[in-house]
Amino acid sequence: MIFRFFTIWILYLVIFHYISSKIFSLPFLTFIVLFNGLYLSYINPKKYYIDFNDKSIIIDGYKKILLDIFCHICPFLFIYKIYGIETFFNNWKIIPSLLLILLYNYIYNPSIIYHININEFIILCISSILSYYLLTFIIFSIKFN
Predict the structure, then answer these.
(1) Are 59 and 50 in contact (CB under 8 A)?
(2) From first to last of its 145 residues, what are the pLDDT tens digits of the chain?
(3) Are residues 28 and 96 in contact, defined by beta-carbon separation less than 8 angstroms?
């Protein structure tokens, strides 16, 4: 089922961004998808495995690059153009966004869906959240100096 992927969840939030931006921090969520998608696309496992109707479809090569651009990079650029980057702290929308990530991890087992080790997945999640925090810290410290 395609809804097992967190990217699809976020794509729905991006499509209905006028409504979902009132609850969730879309710049944060699309950055998480971008960061994790780039890692899963180009570093590990370098292929997409999509299980559909008891068949495993492997997407690699130029199809993987096009899927990465369409599903990870374009939503981030679209949301960045509309909303910019939101601060990590002093932003109440980060809490529902983090809860959405936790809900997804509770419903699905991402290490099985994305074909990576659970420890690697935990490190990837923490590093993507810290990267967003550092990005916002740098941007807002430069903006206010």
Answers:
(1) yes
(2) 678 889 999 999 999 999 999 999 999 999 999 999 999 888 886 777 777 777 878 888 888 889 899 999 999 999 999 999 888 877 899 999 999 999 998 999 888 888 888 888 889 999 999 999 999 999 888 877 6
(3) no
